[in-house]
Fold:
Amino acid sequence: MTTNLPMQDPALDRRVLLSIAILGACAGTPAAPAPLRDDVMFTDHAHAMPLGGASSTRAGLASATGDLRYFGGRIIANARVTQVLYGPGQYLPELTATTGATMASAYTQWLTSGVLDWLSEYGTAAQAIGRGAFAGAVQIAPAAARNTAQISDASIQGELAEQILRGALPAPDNDQVYLVSFPAGRTIVAPDGSLSCVTDGFCAYHGTFKLGSQNVYYGVLPDLTTGCAVGCGEGTAFQQQQAVASHALVATITDPEVGLATVVGPPLAWHDTAAGELGDACLGQQATFAGSDGNRYTIHHELSLQRHACVGGPTSAPSPPPSDDVVDLNHDGRADLCGRSSAGVLCALSTGTGFAPASLWDTSFSDQNQFGAGPQYYSTLGFPDLNHDGLADVCARGRAGVYCEVNTGSGFGPITLWSADFDDAHDWNAGPQYWATIQYPDVNHDGRADLCGRGRAGVFCALNTGAGFAPATLWETTFSDANQFNLGPEFYTTLRFPDLNHDGLADVCGRGRAGVYCALSTGTGFGPTSLWTTDFDDAHAWSAGPQYYATIQFPDVNHDGNADICGRGKAGVYCALSTGASFAPATLWESFFSDADQFDQGPEAYATLRFPDLDNDGRADLCGRSRSGVFCELNTGTSFGPARLWTDFFGDANGWNLDPSSYATIRFPDLDHDGRADICGRDKTGMTCALNTGDRFAPVTLWSAAYDDAHQWNLGPQYYSTLHFP
Structure:
């Protein structure tokens, strides 16, 4: 848990340790005390969660997560939590309740249900992290001198030691964690003298002291009903309390000896020298999940290095592979910017607050080499990961087939012909019903992007060998010219390769006259094609114009790992959930983006419709550009919530309706690696972007002037339509 409080010891990272001189003594004298052993060692260090979680700006914290590493300290293998109630008084009701969703049942769910199983990635060769247990709640009777209106950390350590030695609390061991809650009317004084629940204060902290040779791990959770309700999370006071407590629990599991550390090194365990511990890059991010007891619980998000994202309970399952538009150029988790210019592919790396100076990463996909000669070439440009190294590579179709270049980390390597099967000689230039369907899905789940497209006979795919694409073969025949999928864009432009059943294999779907047909990938072909839904058929007017069929997409709206289907109809946006074998009946998830509100009037409106994840809960939300600007709706799990204006910058008043070189470039990449989609769009001055603050987009600023009109990015789709955020 990070802190923004000052350090007295400049040798220590101020985000790691809060220090004042406690000097190994505890404050106050207990009533009728049992004598403390002379081998009790108290500490003057702790690690705090700062006030301001949900409302704070996290870009700086999120951008610093690249330094999280293991320093060699102890990790808790199977945490056993005792909830300690610090004396009598008025507690948040759920802290003492025994039925329904309580603090005790929340601890049980976090420790035993599997929502934290993903923490196993932070285990070491000698220390595995597994599930734990809840050991129960104990209300102690602190000494009067240690239970005043302001309670120091020295008093808390002293009281815990006293209660342990008396036998009121279970004896410490390497898995035991004491999480201490306080009643209303108590202010906690951190080791540096800062106070809980005040400006520049903290929401919680965790620390360590020693009884003999045994470490004692504890967390301090101030009352959140009197002053902490704003800034320590979102939702009800109990939801905020759960967010804070789960944050403290994970920090204790992955960095338990923080209270003993005197330098940035051992005995610290997992720590980021700039951002702190796992949850500190994710401050203010929380999620809810359904417990095994039927109640819903809240959990704070924590940083996963394997997923390069902040994850919580609902996001503990492996994330689906990123789409071509959000592959990362330099593997730092921040979306970068690339586009094809007349001279080749120009790229600029994201710093989290802007794009670094753009440079030419490739010269082969240039106008001189005829990649600007028509959409049959430039529109196939994509940035897939070809060799499973986490770096976005680049591919595009030329006259002789599909050419690719592998990312070296600072540029794209030499161009080579990866497949001759999609060349002009095989008629892939004959029309958009062929070349416009070329995509780079991973159809066999080996982490390497493959190559697929719709030809005359159906869908052809070529598997990635790591150095080229194997010979293309016919993977399915339903989407063929014989079945009229070539007759209009209302059919062939809807072809996509979503993962419909969460098995990691890209499947295939496309809209026909009767509805949307899909086939599951077997890894070597697509299985039988069947009609997954009739709700998007011609009879329901989905063929009436691009304002309908062109909006069909396959987001995951309920975070079960299965790609669902959504599209804008006359009345608004309809969605149908995937069962893994078909789509359930489509329902109207929202009515703002309707014909009645003029979202059918032009591509400057309906073509901007996207399904980004705005709040990092794993569920796709909804955004689109209107005359006033960009409106967004958060996903409730069963529908999209009320439409709100997230930014007016992209409105008609600023000319965003006038030119496709502007409105057609609006996208929602994650620029600062906080797990929340931001917004970017190109105007005459260059690429403009705004970070997501949690409930709106911050003021838009110019992130790169290299893509402006002066550099001719507005001259045609051969330039502006190739802009991606890999």
Notes: The two ends are 31 Å apart (CA to CA). The CA atoms of residues 74 and 680 lie 43 Å apart.
